[in-house]
């Protein structure tokens, strides 16, 4: 979702996103119950009318020659053909939408069903959907959280249950740099107290939850050490409080 907007803000955002005049954007919003996301989706996708056969043609263009999935080479080419850099965080939103099972891989079912839900059946429509996904990713905490949590699973290799600190750090830098201003202190804490330790799913999920909490309580005056936070977060809070 795009988050809560006043009607004036929604008209302005839709106009900027689509290139419509303010009058046209206002009319499109009214036609779709002032739902900004729905109005934007209809503009870019033509109302979710999707030809699955056309989507399958796109999939087949990038899949492995003798395989059933899009592999690493096809994924790289596909992302580039969408006009994106591989390091662009919105790529993770795309992978989430298409239920990519692992790095550099898309299944036929996930690819087709994912783009169908987004109303896209051609590369051109997929490219037009990217600004919509980016807006959701940057402005909707619930949507960002779903992508953030998916990212941990996406970067696991087969049989793995943890991420290396190096990979987790790179991903945190990509995802949280603009969302958590104390991220450098989190890195310093881990380097001092958990050097060379792998990052569990719980730690991955909870540092984002804590980052949202920390924004509401910057001096950590109301942090409950007896609460439900994991030990690593309690220790991190002690580290931060010692430096206030």
What does this structure look like?
The chain is flat. By secondary structure, it is mainly alpha-helical. It has a two-stranded antiparallel ribbon with strand order 1-2. The chain starts with 6 loop residues before the first helix and ends with a helix. Helix content is 62%, strand content 2%. The longest helix has 17 residues, at 123-139.
Q: What is the share of helical residues?
A: 55-70%
What is the quaternary state of this protein? Answer: single chain
**Average pLDDT number:** 90
Largest sheet, spatial ordering of strands: 1-2
**Quick one: how many beta strands?**
2
How many helices in DSSP terms? 13
SSE succession: HHHHEHHEHHHHHHH
Strand content: under 5%
Terminal residue distance: 36 Å
Could you give a short account of the major beta sheet? 2 strands, antiparallel
Instruction: Give me the Rg, rounded.
Output: 21 Å
> Which residue ranges are poorly predicted, with pLDDT under 50 across at least 5 consecutive positions?
none
Shape annotation: flat
Helical/strand content category: mainly alpha
């Amino acid at each position: 979702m795009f988050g809560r907007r006043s009607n004036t803000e929604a008209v302005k955002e839709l106009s900027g996103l689509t290139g419509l005049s303010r009058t046209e954007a206002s009319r499109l919003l009214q036609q779709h119950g002032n739902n900004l996301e729905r109005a934007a989706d209809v503009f870019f996708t033509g109302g979710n009318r999707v030809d699955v056969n056309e989507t399958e043609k796109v999939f087949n263009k990038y899949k492995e020659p003798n395989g059933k999935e899009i592999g690493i080479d096809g994924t790289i080419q596909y992302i580039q053909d969408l006009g994106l850099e591989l390091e662009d965080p919105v790529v993770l939103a795309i992978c989430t939408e298409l239920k990519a099972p692992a790095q550099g891989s898309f299944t036929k079912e996930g690819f087709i069903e994912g783009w169908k839900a987004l109303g896209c059946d051609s590369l051109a429509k997929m490219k037009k959907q990217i600004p919509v996904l980016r807006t959701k990713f940057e402005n909707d905490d619930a949507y960002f959280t779903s992508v953030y949590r998916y990212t941990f699973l996406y970067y696991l290799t087969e049989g793995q249950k943890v991420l290396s600190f190096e990979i987790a750090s790179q991903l945190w830098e990509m995802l949280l740099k603009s969302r958590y201003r104390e991220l450098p202190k989190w890195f310093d804490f881990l380097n001092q107290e958990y050097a060379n330790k792998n990052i569990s799913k719980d730690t991955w999920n909870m540092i984002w939850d804590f980052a949202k909490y920390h924004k509401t309580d910057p001096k950590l005056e109301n942090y409950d050490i007896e609460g439900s936070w994991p030990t690593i977060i309690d220790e991190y809070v002690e580290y931060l409080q010692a430096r206030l």
